[in-house]
Design a protein that fits this description.
By secondary structure, the chain is an alpha+beta fold. It contains eleven helices and nine strands. It has a five-stranded mixed β-sheet. It has a four-stranded antiparallel β-sheet with strand order 1-2-3-4, with helices on both faces. The longest helix is centred in the C-terminal third of the chain and has 16 residues.
Length: 320
């Protein structure tokens, strides 16, 4: 951020940074979140994660003063912690929980909204904030264990399926296709574009049908482009226009933004709100049911399209 940036901009940037750089990990399938910069699974299997300690053991590592500062009879976080984060983030970051952490620090579980949660470390007086992971000398990831223990869990794939009636979707593909997939899709998302290209041939030949949940949040033009797609007489054709003209270098969809249709704009905003409420942190986000009707989700770009299609069933829930 430039030194002469307005105070509001600096606070907004800090709020985003506090969330974006938090050492929290919630896995939604084999691919990382699409807009994270790391979207494919590594070629070789990653080493097994170090065994995490139980949460109570963490408190033992903190001095009594920190433990006392973290505890309150009514569960209210220390005012110094809350005030510092509120001031620096412009009120965007809220404290969920404060707990004793190693080296006399306090761990602070924070949120900027559903699915945007994380851990930072602070001194008891609120004067200093540390971002990043704490590892023990044996390699144990203390921060991950704390995140698992203190942060809210996002809805499951089955819960997201149950909430699909709150979304505005359109069909890409042949209604007669037996396999069915749902994708949360931003018109400016490079990894949505990759997913579209990979699926295009399969959709054309009727191997799978895709329900597009059109969102628009990645860039200032995303809302207008998403609204233009939803407002079109044939949204699937409008999406094809966006993808055919996609500028990979600029990561910009090819359709012209159009905010003139207030109903379409409202639908995109409602899809955005649904995405946030369901704890979906990025695009693309894929939902499907397997042949047995079990719900699955993949958050991010999955390059193994053949394997993905083999796993997809007809979209119907498992029989009771």
């Amino acid at each position: 951020m430039r030194p002469n940036a307005p105070i509001k901009s600096r606070r907004t940037a800090l709020a985003a940074t506090l969330i974006a750089t938090l050492a929290t990990a919630v896995a939604f399938g084999p691919a990382a979140w699409a807009e994270s910069g790391s979207t494919t699974a590594p070629a070789a299997a990653a080493p097994a994660a170090p065994k995490a300690p139980a949460a109570p053991a963490m408190a033992a590592a903190a001095p009594a003063a920190a433990a006392a500062a973290a505890d309150s009879s009514d569960g209210t976080p220390p005012a110094a912690i809350v005030n510092t984060l509120d001031k620096l983030s412009g009120g965007q970051v809220k404290v969920l929980r404060v707990f004793p952490a190693p080296a006399g620090l306090l761990g602070v579980a924070i949120t900027q909204g559903p699915g945007q949660n994380g851990i930072v470390y602070m001194t008891a007086d609120g004067s200093y904030i540390l971002r990043g992971e704490i590892l023990k000398s044996d390699g144990t990831n203390v921060t991950q264990a704390e995140a698992d223990h203190y942060l809210p869990k996002p809805p499951t794939a089955a819960q997201n399926f149950a909430a699909l009636d709150k979304t505005h979707t359109f069909l890409w593909g042949k209604a007669s296709a037996k396999k069915e997939l749902w994708i949360v899709f931003d018109p400016n998302c490079i990894y949505c574009h990759k997913t579209y290209k990979d699926l295009k041939g399969y959709v054309a030949k009727g191997a799978v049908k895709v329900n597009i949940i059109q969102v628009g949040f990645l860039k200032p033009s995303s809302l207008g482009k998403a609204a233009a797609i939803l407002a079109a007489k044939d949204p699937a054709k409008a999406l094809a226009t966006d993808e055919k003209g996609f500028n990979v270098a600029a990561e910009e969809g090819g359709i012209k933004p159009d905010l003139s249709d207030s109903a379409a704009v409202a639908q995109v905003k409602e899809n955005n709100a649904w995405m946030q409420a369901q704890g979906i942190g990025g695009t693309p986000y894929l939902l499907f049911r397997d042949a047995e009707g079990k719900a699955h989700a993949i958050g991010g770009y999955d390059p193994d399209t053949a394997k993905l299609l083999a796993a997809i069933g007809d979209g119907k829930p498992a029989a009771n």
